[in-house]
Write a structure and sequence with these properties.
This protein has seven helices and eight strands; from the N terminus they run ααββαβαβαββαββα. By secondary structure, the chain is of the alpha+beta class. The strands form two sheets. A six-stranded antiparallel sheet has the order 3-2-1-6-5-4. Strands 7-8 form a two-stranded antiparallel sheet. Helix 2 packs antiparallel against helix 6 (144-183). It is elongated, with a radius of gyration of 23 Å. It starts with a helix and ends in a 7-residue tail after the last helix. The model has no long low-confidence stretch (mean pLDDT 89).
Length: 215
């Protein structure tokens, strides 16, 4: 029931066009409400695919979040860095004894976090968009039910992040089209049913010797 409530809430936020940060935080809080022993985060892979940035981590200590924010992607770069690089789930049942956490031993000890596992967030085409990380304050290996629950959360995160990348791609294409229309040697315009100009490119504005607002 709790999972269904979280799912419906996240889908409602998506339908309303809520900010990405609000949607990701709702996903994480939904996970943490199901188990008070969980400390969770979502990290977003940057456009170059080289670094991970925190998208939501409401219960993790600020100093721990700061240490991981902007972390490199690669094998041995913590659970999330490795998962983002390989595209595979990474389970570390004891951070203190795992080489992938060598660079973050001090900060994880300060945060009293002893286990970590990371689930990659993939687009429908298989591209890694980010990761969901789950931390415990004791040595822990997730069971099949836990993995299923986090997998469902990753699916919701994929919808949110996928929309973000789609919006970004659309803006890039709109910008390219605008550049083309502004620089071609032709009069290009668009009017509504009443003959009012909705768009006039540079050539037409120069002919009218007026800005778009006056046209």
């Amino acid at each position: 029931e709790q999972r269904e409530q979280t799912r419906n809430h996240v889908l409602e936020l998506l339908a309303r066009g809520a900010p990405l940060a609000s949607i990701l935080e709702a996903i994480i809080r939904g996970l943490e409400q199901q188990n008070e022993n969980l400390f969770c985060s979502i990290q977003i892979l940057n456009s170059e695919g080289k670094r991970l940035f925190i998208g939501a981590a409401p219960r993790l200590p600020d100093f721990f979040v700061d240490a991981l924010n902007g972390s490199e992607v690669g094998v041995g770069q913590g659970s999330c860095g490795t998962a983002a690089f390989t595209g595979q789930r990474v389970i570390v049942d004891d951070i203190r004894a795992h080489p992938s956490w060598a660079n973050y031993q001090a900060v994880s000890a300060k945060a009293a976090l002893l286990s970590s596992w990371s689930e990659p967030i993939r687009s429908v085409t298989g591209k890694v968009l980010g990761t969901i990380a789950i931390y415990h304050r004791h040595v822990h290996t997730p069971d099949e039910q836990e993995i299923k629950i986090v997998g469902q959360a990753a699916n919701l995160a994929e919808i949110a992040l996928g929309r973000r990348y789609a919006d970004h791609s659309l803006k890039e294409k709109e910008g390219l089209l605008s550049d083309i229309l502004e620089n071609v040697s032709a009069y290009i315009y668009m009017k509504d049913m009443h003959g009012r100009y909705l768009f006039a490119n540079r050539m037409l504005r120069e002919r009218f010797d007026a800005p778009m607002e006056e046209i």
